Every structure is written in structure tokens, then in C-alpha cells.
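Q: Give me a backbone?
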Amino acid sequence: MKAVLKIFPFFLLAVCMFYYPQDVLKSAATGLALWANYVLPALLPFFIISDLLMKQGFVHFLGVLLEPLMRPLFRLPGQASFVLAMTHTTGIPIGAMLTCKMRNAGEISKTEGERLLAFTSNPSPGFMFGAVASGMLGNPSLGIIIAGSVYLANLLVGFIFRFYGPAAANPSNSKFSLITAYQKLKQAQNKNKKPFGELLADTVRDSIATILLVGGFIVFFAVITQMLTKLKINITIAKVLAFISGELLTVPGGEAFLQGLLETTLGCQATVKAFSNLNTQIGVLTFLLGFGGLSVFAQVASFTATTDLRFFPFILGRVLHAFLALLISQILLRSSTLPTTVLPASLTEGTAFWVLSLKWSLFFFSLVSFLLLVLALTSLVLRKAIFPRS
């Protein structure tokens, strides 16, 4: 019976696909266009550069410098700061990919990997500022509220998860030292004797395989979403949610919410159309962006399958992130005055979007890296002032 239950959902999906071939083609084309226009150009360059930086020892260099910050705040080694910086600037699923690579390389423990995985799953700033705030809402200033809510909530999740699991038996040296950082950089480079051409070829090959995997998940979940619509399953569930909530959540709003739980981008588009109140729009958007959607869950699961990391901490982190992002967004909305500038539509379409996405991502990567270094230096100075003999 258990074996039958495992294949039944896929058998039902296959039957629906044969019965509605045009809808399958249309939804698959939509998912493919979403991947080709937004995901591929926005993420592939960062997949390549992050892999090169890891193979060239930059993670070890940064790890020594930021160990005094990461240990007390998140109970993570300094190397985790690279994952933290990349996921806040590049977006899903690079955080899970880098975390799993570090775990397979033995650079973090199992508990540290699960702790890191729980709060390194964010949409990119380019997506939040460009696609959501500027494109869907028509107000780029709302990107500050959306991104601020998602990022603040994510850091809070990271701080909460510092209490997850036992402490490391022998935490690494937490002294700030440029000399030690340089030595670690050289050691990592000496271990990798491949010529740069071969190294670059391997990196590009692995990055393309990863981005194709992401594209496959996006197309697959776009088809599932369309099949649920054709079968009116999402409408039925939305009516139940509307009844339970006492009409606080309308049927169109329930449909948009369910769509977002499956695939974030499609859900965000539906949310803007389903709700007219700005506070409700921002609240639902930040909730969905914090949660990530089952499409993201499947992507992360494909990476963790190659490790011994458990998936439950990631799920717990996403749920906690979603509710915290919703709460923070409402606080920020009530305490801020937003301009009503509307971005021209031409800047939110086609090539212009991924250029905007790359600009925001590069800006945030530089900003986050700078802030992490400043915080590390500040923590060092304070520790020396309070504990001069340490």
C-alpha cells in the first residue's frame, strides 16, 4: 500500500498532463521564460565566482578575519561568513549549495551545517527591488521595506538558531590576524594544483549543471501549479481557508497564497493582483519571500541529499523566517514615510531587469562584506578593551 501511495501523485499528474497538453505547454513555457530571463543571467555569474573564490581559498581567508564575529553571534566558524554574504547578495539557492560544499569538505560540523542552512535562504536584492517592488508594485521605494524585513528576519533566525544543537567541542581560534588569514589562503591554494584553465572549466561546468537543476525545478512547479488550477484544487482549498479565517482571507487571496507556497515568483505576482490594501500586499509578499516556496524546498533537498545534513532545521527556519518577516514588515510600514515614485515599466522588463539585478547584487555583496569586516574589527576592539589580557 505504501508503494502505491508513493507513485499515485505522479501517476495522477501524468494523467492530467496528457488530458491538458496545451496548459502543460503554456505553464512550462512560462516557467522556462522565468528561468531564462531572470534566474539564469542573475545567478550563473555568482555561481561561477563563488566556486572560484572557494577553490582559491578566499573562504579560509575570510574565515580567520570574521571568526570573532560569527562565533559569538551565530555559533558558526568564520568560513560561514562567506555563505552569509553570498546568500544575502545573490539569493536562493546559493546558500544551500555553498553550505553543502563546505560540509562535504569537512569545513563545518553537521550541527553547524544545519544551523547555517536554516538562515541562508533569501531571495536576491535584485529580485526584491527590481521584480517585486519596481515591477509588480510599481514603487521601488517599497523594496527597502521588503528587503529590510526579509533580511532582518533572516538574521534574527540565525541568532535564534545559535541555540540549536550542542556547542563545538573545540572551537577554532577566534583571534583576528591578517597574517594567519594569509597563511590559510596560501595553504588552500597549495592544496589545489590544477591549472587555472582547468579550474575555470570545472567551475563553469558545475555551475551550469546547478543552474539547469534550478531551472528544472522552476518548470516542474510551474506545471504543478497550473494543474492544480485546472483541477480547481487550489480554489477548493482557498474557500476552506476563507471560511476558517472568517473572510479575513478572500478566495482570490487564498489562491495567491497557496500559489506562493508552491512557487514564490508566481505567488508574488498573484498576491499583488489579489489584494488591494498595501499593508496586506507587503505582509503576504514578505511572508512568501521568507518562506521560499516548495520549489525552493525541493532545490535545497537536492543539495542536502549529498550530505548528512537533516532537512527539518531548514523547514523550521523557513517557517520562523516567514512569520518574522511578516511582523517586521508591518512595523516598518507603520513607522516609515514612503515616496510614491513609480519606476518606468521599461526598466522592469527583459534585459533591463537582470542588469538591474546584477547591479543591486554587486552593491549588496560589497556592502555586506564591508559591514562584516567592520563588525569583526569592532568586536576585536571591544574585546581588547574589556578583556585586555585575552
In short: Residues 18-162+177-194+204-386 form one domain. The radius of gyration is 22 Å.
